[in-house]
User: Which sequence fits this backbone?
């Protein structure tokens, strides 16, 4: 029997990422979507006619056992309350990032997850970016030698402040680029090199009228001496390389962004031919100065996250991303804020 999935939220996260990915995984069925917006309700009915459309999340709990998984893609301040309600109703959860506004809230959610015996799985889909999968393979195979420095960027040119909760200065909204994009970059660095020992950060609000950070640099020092340098910006008039990784044997450098988000925004899904495939002109380069060569990019595969979630719910495998992973990311974000405020390096 298919796993019945209820999706809360049909903004960009719900409509572009979660709904099409869930619908592309065999053995999963998008059974319900919660959105109060009439236009979004019509969009759900047009694209997913088999899914119930509910105006409020409270409707999900009216019938016990109606769903096997709840996916929370609502605004950040609703993440923890909705996840707690799902757990107390006996339903496993996939929770969009950031999973909480504070590490303390995330730890309280982990405690409830343990008591209820139900997983809460953070949606850290960028582990399935093609360029990151390529880097992970190169690092694991020894092709780079010992990694000395890892540079990673999510840079955009969005000089005007846009309306919305992501621009809110209320701490409960966890707004700004560090909470929006930071979880991805931090998670990738920690997955590669482990929990850092020290954190240093520079955090600024550069745009006129900005109430939240829009230009961030975070430096992590990992055990063994690897240094991760992470840039996140909405004010980059020139975009740096996505990854620049320097090893004792070779480097790997790749530009641009993984193409899955653009494909999903265009209405494509992992069921379409060529989804996740990077064309050769966009390959990164591996080697040393004067002796580098194109390195084929692994296919991007966000759908593999939900395939792994399905295995977890069936008791066949552990979660593909753990709450502990996401809590570490929030602890690093909080350390970064202290570092930027105090102008010092924070021992983690």
Assistant:
């Amino acid at each position: 029997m298919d796993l019945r999935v209820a999706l809360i939220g049909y903004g960009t996260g719900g409509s572009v990422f979660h709904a099409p990915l869930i619908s592309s995984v065999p053995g999963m069925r998008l059974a319900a979507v919660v959105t109060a917006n009439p236009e979004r309700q019509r969009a759900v009915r047009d694209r997913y006619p088999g899914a119930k459309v509910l105006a409020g999340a409270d409707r999900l709990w009216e019938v016990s056992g109606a769903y096997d998984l709840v996916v929370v893609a609502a605004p950040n301040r609703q993440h923890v309350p909705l996840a707690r309600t799902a757990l107390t109703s006996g339903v496993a959860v996939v929770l969009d990032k950031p999973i909480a506004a504070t590490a303390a809230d995330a730890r309280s959610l982990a405690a409830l997850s343990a008591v209820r015996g139900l997983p809460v799985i953070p949606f850290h889909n960028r582990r399935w970016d093609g360029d990151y999968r390529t880097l992970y393979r190169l690092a694991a195979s020894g092709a780079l030698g010992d990694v000395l420095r890892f540079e990673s960027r999510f840079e955009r040119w969005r000089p005007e402040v846009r309306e919305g909760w992501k621009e809110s200065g209320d701490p409960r909204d966890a707004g700004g680029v560090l909470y929006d994009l930071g979880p991805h970059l931090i998670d990738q660095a920690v997955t590669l090199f482990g929990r850092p020992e020290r954190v240093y950060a520079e955090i600024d609000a550069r745009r006129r009228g900005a109430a939240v950070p829009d230009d961030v640099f975070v430096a992590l020092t990992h055990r063994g001496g690897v240094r991760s340098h992470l840039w996140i910006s909405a004010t980059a008039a020139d975009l740096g390389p996505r990854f620049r990784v320097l090893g004792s044997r070779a480097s790997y450098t790749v530009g641009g962004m993984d193409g899955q988000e653009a494909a999903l925004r265009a209405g494509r899904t992992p069921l379409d031919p060529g989804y996740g495939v990077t064309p050769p002109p966009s390959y990164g380069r591996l080697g040393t100065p004067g002796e580098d060569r194109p390195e084929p990019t692994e296919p991007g595969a966000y759908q593999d996250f939900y395939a792994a979630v399905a295995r977890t719910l069936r008791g066949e495998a552990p979660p593909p991303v753990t709450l502990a992973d996401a809590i570490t990311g929030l602890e690093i974000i909080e350390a970064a804020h202290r570092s930027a405020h105090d102008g010092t390096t924070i021992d983690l």
Remarks:
- Residues 117 and 276 are 34 Å apart (CA to CA).
- The mean pLDDT is 97.
